Amino acid sequence: xxxxxxxxxxxxxxxxxxxxxxxxxxxxxxxxxxxxxxxxxxxxxxxxxxxxxxxxxxxxxxxxxxxxxxxxxxxxxxxxxxxxxxxxxxxxxxxxxxxxxxxxxxxxxxxxxxxxxxxxxxxxxxxxxxxxxxxxxxxxxxxxxxxxxxxxxxxxxxxxxxxxxxxxxxxxxxxxxxxxxxxxxxxxxxxxxxxxxxxxxxxxxxxxxxxxxxxxxxxxxxxxxxxxxxxxxxxxxxxxxxxxxxxxxxxxxxxxxxxxxxxxxxxxxxxxxxxxxxxxxxxxxxxxxxxxxxxxxxxxxxxxxxxxxxxxxxxxxxxxxxxxxxxxxxxxxxxxxxxxxxxxxxxxxxxxxxxxxxxxxxxxxxxxxxxxxxxxxxxxxxxxxxxxxxxxxxxxxxxxxxxxxxxxxxxxxxxxxxxxxxxxxxxxxxxxx
Length: 433
Ligand SMILES: C[C@H]1O[C@@H](n2cnc3c(O)ncnc32)[C@H](O)[C@@H]1O
Ligand SMILES: [Zn+2]
Hints:
The protein has helices at residues 78-90, 95-111, 124-134, 150-170, 189-202, 214-224, 228-234, 252-261, 269-274, 283-288, 308-322, 331-345, 377-384, 409-432; strands spanning 10-17, 20-27, 30-35, 44-47, 51-55, 57-62, 114-121, 137-144, 175-181, 205-210, 242-246, 264-267, 292-295, 361-365, 390-395, 398-401. 41% of the residues lie in helices and 22% in strands. The strands form three sheets. Strands 6-7-8-9-10-11-12-13 form an eight-stranded parallel β-sheet. Strands 3-2-1-4 form a four-stranded mixed β-sheet, with no helix packed on it. Strands 5-14-15-16 form a four-stranded antiparallel β-sheet, with no helix packed on it. Helix 11 (308-322) crosses helix 13 (377-384). The chain is an alpha/beta fold. The protein has two domains: 10-55 and 353-404, Roll (Urease, subunit C, domain 1), CATH 2.30.40; 57-345, Metal-dependent hydrolases (TIM Barrel). The protein has 14 helices and 16 strands. Bound molecules: the ligand C[C@H]1O[C@@H](n2cnc3c(O)ncnc32)[C@H](O)[C@@H]1O and zinc ion (ZN). Zinc ion binds at residues 61, 63, 209, 245, 298-299. Its cofactor is Zn(2+). Zn(2+) binds at residues 61, 63, 209, 298. Belongs to the metallo-dependent hydrolases superfamily. MTA/SAH deaminase family. Residues 53-399 form the Amidohydrolase-related domain.
């Protein structure tokens, strides 16, 4: 798909928003009016009859091009899954693979109502090209992994700086650079501190894995004397610009620290359950302590899709199940995590259906079984529907999917299939050498 948007005004006519039948007008990529009387001339008119509108969704933790690894290795524990299966295959990735894998991810996200995402991976200049082509928003970080080696650290620093410069040169308000120190078990404290300083100097966000497994915490305490949260803090990585993914094995002091520092904790319930990390993020404590709360899918090899509707439901259910409380994480909070909170975590303005906000809009099929009956649209969106109910998606006023048609879909699927074949062939050749 190529950029087709030229700032057209849009009118969505007769759509249901929180039980009200309204018209929505969009000018210059922002909501201009929402109400019974809104209307007038528009370049693009969308018939909203038979649709329910919600704000666009934001996925705050993923590794987009891992779409290429979907189903490649399942049902394993995290450390073995990474070191025996994922990292050996990723060693053969090329920039073209990441370009097609990220386009495939964007396609899947658009089809399920996601308009923005937070990515950490490799060949991120190619990921940026893919995001630009597909028209959604993203915060992109190079996965900084120095494995406690000085020479490797220099390479990671170079790659991180190069990505920041190239994204700056793109001058696309929908694409932001971030720094992506992978975790305390893959990055030295020198590397972590460099990332913190670089993010401060450049005023860019931080994307890091935190306390995903019990092993991460016990190994860290054995090695450093302190917990992963404290390591990140002493390296300067806990800031209001930080998205910390997983946050499963936090204690109450960790939660207080994340709250004090204004960190956003990205909950990834599907991945956590699939990898059986053994504990749910302490949502209640983090909320009490004032941390930001948002939602992510993680990569397609540990989920195995990018459907934020499923993630909202899994988050609400996992929290209720793990903390023995049916009242924790109600539907409205799950939707808030996936929309406005997610946008805020990535430093985007969107995720709200309000006049003046960027026009991130998702239309759901009002006539689908999952929306019948519709006592409470938020309940249906979180507990009953999945991404298959999404019919139309707008991001900053651009129509990315209309009536389930995404322009250029076949080309993306073809490109991704070819990338997968090449990747597997290179891997096979290296094993038989
Ligand atoms: C950027 C690197 O991160 C790897 N990765 C993917 N999922 C996870 C996870 O759940 N925890 C830690 N690291 C993960 C990915 O394969 C890249 O190598
Ligand atoms: Zn991850």
